Amino acid sequence: MAVTDEAIEKIKGMIVSGSLRPGDRLPKESELAAELGLSRNSLREAVRALSLIRILDVRQGDGTYVTSLDPQLLLEALSFVVDFHRDDTVLEFLAVRRILEPAATAMASSRISEQQLDALTAQLDALGAAPSVEELVACDLEFHRGIVQSSGNSVLCSLLDGLSGPTTRARIWRGLTQEDAVSRTLHEHRAILAALRDRDAEAARSWATVHIASVEQWLRSTL
């Protein structure tokens, strides 16, 4: 592993220094191994590892390329790790979401378009006053994704997208067991939209915090 780690660090160094740029094709395996002072086996293992986390793209019969290094692509690895969360870490995921999502919502207040706000409003209207819990949670995911995308920060958007999965089951369970969960969620969504329409960043931040904290508070009470 130590030799493979060294190979990974050397390839990483080439990318960070600019010797290899997004979209560049790596030199032939034999040439790159000689250039970096590595065995071909250790280089091969490093390439395999870096392809798993979307740093490199191995194209059969064509060669190995540096990916676009787009944040959304790179953060796919986070989603993979998140899928292995334990139930007792859901509160930690919610806490991170409570820190990041209100900030993204506040950022969106000055950037989200009227058309996007109209689309989110139509989405809520289509749910009606008494949606099923599953319909509400699915809408909740799309609702917040749409707002976060409007923040203009692709890294923040990718992070929150990856973190949303572990909290889905908790939100469904809350909807099934807490009497006013559905109506409260709809009310909080409307309040967030109203703050965004008013271009009020602090109100948008506050309502997003209340919205996430309510799920967190309920979950704490059940543990």
Mean pLDDT: 84
- Tell me roughly what share of residues is in helical segments: over 70%
Pattern of helices and strands: HHHEEHHHHHHHH
Can you count the helices? Answer: 11
Number of separate strands: 2
List the helices and strands and how they pair.
Layout: H1 2-17, H2 29-36, H3 40-52, E1 56-59, E2 63-66, H4 71-74, H5 76-82, H6 90-108, H7 114-127, H8 133-149, H9 154-177, H10 181-197, H11 201-222
Antiparallel strand pairs: 1-2
Helix pairs in contact: 1-3, 5-9, 6-8, 6-9, 6-11, 7-8, 7-10, 8-9, 8-10, 10-11
Give your account of this protein's structure.
The chain is mostly helical. Helices cover 72% and strands 4% of the residues. It contains 11 helices and 2 strands, in the order H-H-H-E-E-H-H-H-H-H-H-H-H. The protein has helices at 2-17, 29-36, 40-52, 71-74, 76-82, 90-108, 114-127, 133-149, 154-177, 181-197, 201-222; strands at 56-59, 63-66. It has a two-stranded antiparallel sheet with strand order 1-2. Helix 6 crosses helix 8, helix 6 crosses helix 9 and helix 6 runs antiparallel to helix 11 (201-222). It is elongated and about 65 Å long.
